[in-house]
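Continuing from the previous page...

OK, I double-checked the sequence for Rubrerythrin against my notes and this is the correct one:
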Amino acid sequence: MNKEQKQTLTMMKKEFSSLLLAFVLMLGISPVFAAGSTQTVKDLQDAFTGESTAHAKYAAFAKKAKEEGYPKIALLFEAASRAEKVHAGNHQAALKQLGAEVPNVNPEFDVKGTRENLKNAIEGESYEVATMYPNFLKDASNEKVNIALMSFNYAFQTEKKHKEMYENALASLDNNQVKDMPSLYQVCLVCGNTYAGEGPARCGICMTPNERFVTLKL
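Thanks. Re-ran it with the corrected sequence; updated structure tokens here:
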């Protein structure tokens, strides 16, 4: 192949790459080879770090609640911890499908008394519900990254329920009504949706059959 032929081949490859990229963007698909430069990928990495940390933190909070004689509050923390593990797994899967790096996470948090731990959990869930996930969903929508939209929405819808559960648990603790808290939770293994008591036949977020829920009970 002479120099002129090589130049022609190189030009054809560039034109093909440009046409392919234009076609991909026209379909609303985020190209894997551009994933590392998108805001959505950064959001996924932050979300993976946050959910991995929450998974470990809530497990530690559950242990503390048991030590302080609050098995039903411990059960709530265990259920939420299991849900956060699902969310972290979904974010990780999205990152891998986009060809992006998955962060190494070394969770850092403080474990205090159960009342303080509940307040910490409420604060964290409130931030995710009011700020973090709404912003992440907006970024993923703008960049048309459907797998991230799905993963973010699963977590967002679940965290709204966790916030309410933690608020109810704190009220029960303050009013000496912990004994009336649920003694069974079910967690959807696809989206992390968390039910206090028996869940429905299908998940209210992702329609997964109840058979794929994990049950935690005393």
